[in-house]
Amino acid sequence: xxxxxxxxxxxxxxxxxxxxxxxxxxxxxxxxxxxxxxxxxxxxxxxxxxxxxxxxxxxxxxxxxxxxxxxxxxxxxxxxxxxxxxxxxxxxxxxxxxxxxxxxxxxxxxxxxxxxxxxxxxxxxxxxxxxxxxxxxxxxxxxxxxxxxxxxxxxxxxxxxxxxxxxxxxxxxxxxxxxxxxxxxxxxxxxxxxxxxxxxxxxxxxxxxxxxxxxxxxxxxxxxxxxxxxxxxxxxxxxxxxxxxxxxxxxxxxxxxxxxxxxxxxxxxxxxxxxxxxxxxxxxxxxxxxxxxxxxxxxxxxxxxxxxxxxxxxxxxxxxxxxxxxxxxxxxxxxxxxxxxxxxxxxxxxxxxxxxxxxxxxxxxxxxxxxxxxxxxxxxxxxxxxxxxxxxxxxxxxxxxxxxxxxxxxxxxxxxxxxxxxxxxxxxxxxxxxxxxxxxxxxxxxxxxxxxxxx
Amino acid sequence: xxxxxxxxxxxxxxxxxxxxxxxxxxxxxxxxxxxxxxxxxxxxxxxxxxxxxxxxxxxxxxxxxxxxxxxxxxxxxxxxxxxxxxxxxxxxxxxxxxxxxxxxxxxxxxxxxxxxxxxxxxxxxxxxxxxxxxxxxxxxxxxxxxxxxxxxxxxxxxxxxxxxxxxxxxxxxxxxxxxxxxxxxxxxxxxxxxxxxxxxxxxxxxxxxxxxxxxxxxxxxxxxxxxxxxxxxxxxxxxxxxxxxxxxxxxxxxxxxxxxxxxxxxxxxxxxxxxxxxx
Lengths: 455, 279
Description:
CATH class of chain B: Mainly Beta
Radius of gyration of chain B: 19 Å
Number of helices of chain B: 4
Oligomer: heterodimer
Structural class of chain B: alpha+beta
Strand order of the largest sheet of chain B: 1-8-9-10-11-12-13-14-2-3-4-5-6-7
Mean pLDDT of chain B: 81
Shape of chain B: globular
């Protein structure tokens, strides 16, 4: 049996090598489509990875517990009272928590010399924000200011203040600094609606970080004390608790556990919806209740809207690759058909010396499979190489529209070994299936037909 | 010129007037000076009486309708001119503002319901609750178009007698009463001694930072056929200039015209009415 399989492989490989030109033409097409598939997949993977990294460090945790407070039925603020009690309940209920982060959160007008922009100011405690400082890196002044120095100014620590000189420090992203026309050390006004009326505080730019996609257009950071002072809040009032767990895929189960526990402990909660809080804000504000309610979301809920872009892009990629695959399949079918006709006498000979019709079928299918496998590997390998080159080059995206769509300021690609193997197998199988019909036709050829064909 | 019968011409004239006004300084400049100390200061009762009078004079017994022009100078957007119709029924706190111009804003409207301000966007057909602090993205707020309600919301203290341009004024400072929800927790008013018109107003943030300065340059006495000779006269500022002190360079001029104190239909103060007009 082993010998027979070896024989089939030998004949198939020899046949492919004999028809070098035909094999090369078909193989190049397979390689090209495989490479294209790998590149498109790497773009959507890179986009999704950047989105998840950004969402689960800059904007949210794997699980998010947000306090919503209404002093009258139509006005809602992100305020969480007795946050320490809620943190204790989280620690008690979940056993796979890696760390917990507590933040204050307000939206207001950042008023610069040039422009005014609306931003979500996050009040953070740097000692808790392990992931945030890992993801963010400070930007060179030249990246956000014309004629700026080619060096990084400020530091994360400056946010917390050095003596009295850095009080009310704020961390901006490069695009925000550029829009507002500020650099490290400048003062900037922040106007916010508090429970007691409008407040304006002067903030000092302590550091400016490189952009991390779309999220960096809306978020900015200061210490919790700065935000509490701006909002005239007490020490035990925050806005959100971000919970990080060992396996983020288990976030929905953890969310359900927490909801049950909070319910047992008598906390009022909003109805769960798999959507970001920003999207649901207006509806929640319209609901007729007063006081505090807890709102729980997972990291996936927070990126559900952005994921539509990933899914759309992936769908378009698959449609494109499917169309190309069909074209290739037709090409393979046609080529195999010609090959069967050309090799009718050869088929007759090997049938005459004892090869069965199923043997012929296997032989032709094996030829197509080997052709597809080899060239799909070549295509996947080339695609992987290009992905690595582009990733190393860190190509910046200068077009604003593309930046918004890709949620990134540089071209980020990501492809895994699993994705490559899937691509290779898929195109090898497509090639083999395409050759099925001509192979059946070849298998049905009788030796006598072959002799007649020669005559 | 027959203003009431020629609205097209009125629009042109109003726009030209606004343009001219925007390049001239207020008749009483921003600077004010304290009068000599021998001037009599106001006691608390006098201050409260003046505030009550201001409140009462801004509250109409009848329905109110007017055409307003908002000229906005925005540091990023440049100059914008809006025209809107305003409807008020003060006896039950009803307020409606329907934008007519520019074309891009036509059909947009504000409606006060149960002390909340709602905005209707004709493009999306959605209603949303919005802050009272910023009407149509300008530096004006709802208080620029409604009754004052100072006594109910603020505690007032007399500061000094001053001279504001050619006018003799009382400088009074107001702080919000505990538990009262106000946009600006602190406010300073410069009130003309004789007429008790509020000529200048400064709004402050919780931190004490000056947010905006407002000048009301022209006041008009409104008369109603129903009112007896002894009833309190009602006044409205025909021209208001608002200077944003935080976003320097932003300012808004409000001009009120075609005022009518005739009864309005009840359905005007409803969402359905505004939606029908927006179509």
